Amino acid sequence: MFSFEFLPADTIEHTKGSPTYDQTGELIGLSSVHEYHSCSREQCFNKKLDNNKCPKCNTEYTDNNNNKSAICTVAIQQQSEINNFTLFPTQLQQILHTEEKFTSKEQVEEAILNIVPAKVSGCVHSNLPSFNDGRSAQNLCAA
């Protein structure tokens, strides 16, 4: 799975061969959706709770007062390849142009399937840390 990082457009160089370059594709499907308990503090960006505790701010929650969030993996066709990308809550809001919080599998499925197919654009950040299997992080936003 890939993760996405959103940066202000004026901070990104967009030329092939530079640490960051443009990439486009078409969102063609939804691979999976996962719900999880998350921190409700805005500065934690829906961080997943670990044993009912936020690993970022250390706020402790009970099962009754924690937040719920959802992430999804989408299929994006790029030329003749289909690649899967993970969209976290902030990226879901950006790609769907909404401030709505996505807290359930059904809510995410409905929102994504209502826009498929959709043109999307993103930036490959080759200077960001890579994952264990050699993938790099990517920035994705709606075209």
Class inferred from helices and paired strands:
mainly beta
Question: What is the fold named in CATH at topology level of the domain at 9-35 and 70-142?
Answer: OB fold (Dihydrolipoamide Acetyltransferase, E2P)
Low-confidence parts, pLDDT < 50 over ≥5 residues? 12-16, 127-139
Note the total helix count: 2
Tally the beta strands.
5
Strand order of the largest sheet: 3-2-1-4-5
**Assigned CATH class of the domain at 9-35 and 70-142:** Mainly Beta
Tell me what the CATH architecture of the domain at 9-35 and 70-142 is: Beta Barrel
Indicate the percent of residues in helices: 10-25%
Shape: elongated
Tell me the strand percentage band: 35-45%
* Helix and strand run: EEEHHEE
Walkthrough of the structure:
The protein is mainly β and 143 residues long. The chain has a domain at 9-35 and 70-142: OB fold (Dihydrolipoamide Acetyltransferase, E2P) (Beta Barrel). Helix content is 11%, strand content 36%. The protein contains 2 helices and 5 strands, in the order βββααββ. The chain has helices spanning 89-95, 105-113; strands spanning 20-38, 67-78, 81-87, 118-125, 138-142. A 5-stranded antiparallel beta sheet has the order 3-2-1-4-5. A hairpin with a 2-residue loop joins β2 (67-78) and β3. The protein is elongated. The two termini are 21 Å apart. Residues 12-16 and 127-139 have low confidence and may be disordered.
